[in-house]
UniProtKB/TrEMBL annotation:
The keyword Heme does not apply. Its main location: mitochondrion. It is an enzyme of class 2 (transferase). It comes from Candolleomyces eurysporus. This is Aminomethyltransferase. The lineage of its organism: Eukaryota, Fungi, Dikarya, Basidiomycota, Agaricomycotina. It comes from the Eukaryota. Keywords: Aminotransferase, Mitochondrion, Transferase, Transit peptide. Gene3D superfamilies: Aminomethyltransferase beta-barrel domains, Aminomethyltransferase fragment, Probable tRNA modification gtpase trme, domain 1. Residues 326-404 form the Aminomethyltransferase C-terminal domain. Belongs to the GcvT family. It catalyses: N(6)-[(R)-S(8)-aminomethyldihydrolipoyl]-L-lysyl-[protein] + (6S)-5,6,7,8-tetrahydrofolate = N(6)-[(R)-dihydrolipoyl]-L-lysyl-[protein] + (6R)-5,10-methylene-5,6,7,8-tetrahydrofolate + NH4(+). Residues 42-303 form the GCVT N-terminal domain. Its EC number is 2.1.2.10. GO terms for cellular component: glycine cleavage complex; mitochondrion.
Length: 410
């Protein structure tokens, strides 16, 4: 689940890195480009730490650090604690008397029933019910929300928000109370992840982190800084995502990166999230995919499945009632890892789907993948075949997450 993020303005051009050096699971985000890359506030911090910087989602981001490989970093997160820079993500505040109604129009989530300082994964939908982006929405109060969206969708999301905000404020609801949007430009966002994350962070604060269960957030004093801390993350492990004002980002990063914390890049982030069964926008989600097809029906509030008036509701409600034509599934593949684009076949050699993400799992020692198959082939234990390098490999439909999550639920 992707949680909490920040942005910076365009800066000087950074030399791109060959796609040959990039994990194939993330290749789509690493498309070579001559466009000047943005930088997070920690760019110099990464370079000084020996980071290998690569273009990702319009930013120059760390792939790995020094001679520590992706698999070693992956295992460190699963067994200890690591720190990710996710400051390329977009952090936004929405405020106003009708903010709840506005965000319930843009998404299918039940935000009115969400308690204060609680978060939920949600989706922004287009008129056809397709996913514009996946997002984390944190409710501070009925008139105040903190929303995080993906860096690679910035140029789609922000105009969408602006257009819908103008439409909302010009209508009857807006007259009851207009909604304002504040993009937190240049704010930092750090993800402290792993089974030792809580003990490490607890050593830096007087706040009792046991009160902060998965999906909850609070403003926490950390060594003189008062920071928004949300418990959650994108790895399946216990952890925190910490939003930081621009002037404090480097100092906080230094504070959070001492032994046993290991700086961790995008390579390990991708394998960790896939083991946790989490989607990567652009690979596993896009505007032609609905939340029902993506196995994200749980983000749709119970009350909204019947009477919700959110954008794209007609398609979503129809699929909830009749079932979608395809479904997102997990697979364990024999022999060789299946990568994005690999075709999935049924027992009669008919193509039934396509792989959207795939890796050799460092934790399980198996080849795992995520993809979409025709409805009816999605059941646990269904045997299929995947075309890997022009050779059909046996695969089995497997429930996700592949690795049991270790969230702190109290």
């Amino acid at each position: 689940m992707a949680i909490l993020r920040g942005i910076s303005a365009l800066q000087r051009c950074v030399r791109t890195t060959s796609a040959r050096n990039i994990p194939k699971g993330l290749a789509r985000g690493y498309a070579a480009t001559s466009t000047p890359l943005r930088k997070t506030g920690l760019y110099d911090f990464h370079v000084s730490a020996g980071a290998k910087m690569v273009p990702f989602a319009g930013y120059s981001m760390p792939l790995s650090y020094g001679d520590v490989g992706q698999v070693a970093s992956h295992h460190h997160i699963r067994n200890s604690v690591g720190l990710f820079d996710v400051g390329h993500m977009v952090q936004i505040n929405f405020r106003g008397a009708t903010a709840t109604d506005f965000l319930e129009w843009l998404t299918p989530s039940s935000l009115s029933s969400l308690s204060s300082y609680s978060s939920t994964l949600s989706v922004l939908l287009n008129e056809q019910g397709g996913i514009i982006d996946d997002t984390i929405i944190t409710k501070h109060a009925s008139d105040a929300y903190y929303v995080v969206t993906n860096a690679g969708r910035r140029d789609r999301d922000l105009p969408h928000f602006k257009e819908k905000l103008e439409e909302w404020n010009a209508g009857e609801k807006g007259k009851e109370g207009p909604v304002e949007m504040e993009v937190l430009e240049d704010w930092g966002l750090l993800a402290l992840q792993g089974p030792e994350a809580a003990s490490y962070l607890q050593s830096l604060t007087s706040y009792d982190l046991k009160q902060l269960t998965f999906g909850k957030s609070a403003f926490v004093p950390i060594e003189g800084f008062n920071l928004h801390v949300a418990r959650g993350g994108y790895t399946g492990e216990d952890g925190f995502e910490i939003s930081i004002p621009p002037s404090q980002t480097v100092e906080v990063a230094k504070l959070l990166s001492k032994n046993p914390v290991q700086l961790t890049g995008l390579g390990a982030r991708d394998s960790l999230r896939l083991e946790a069964g989490m989607c990567l926008y652009g690979n596993d989600l896009d505007e032609t995919t609905t939340p029902v097809e993506a196995g994200l029906s749980w983000v749709i509030g119970k009350d909204r499945k019947e009477n919700g008036t959110f954008i794209g509701a007609e398609t979503v409600k129809k699929q909830l009632k009749e079932g979608p034509a395809r479904r997102r599934v997990g697979l364990v593949v024999e022999g060789a890892p299946a990568r994005q684009g690999a075709k999935i076949f049924g027992s009669d050699s008919e193509q039934i789907g396509t792989v959207t993400s795939g890796i050799p799992s460092p934790t399980l020692g198996k080849n795992i993948a995520m993809g979409y198959v025709k409805n009816g082939f999605h059941k646990k234990g269904t045997e299929v075949q995947v075309d890997v390098r022009n050779k059909l490999r046996k695969a089995v439909i497997t429930p996700m997450p592949f690795v049991k999550p270790n969230y702190w639920r109290g």
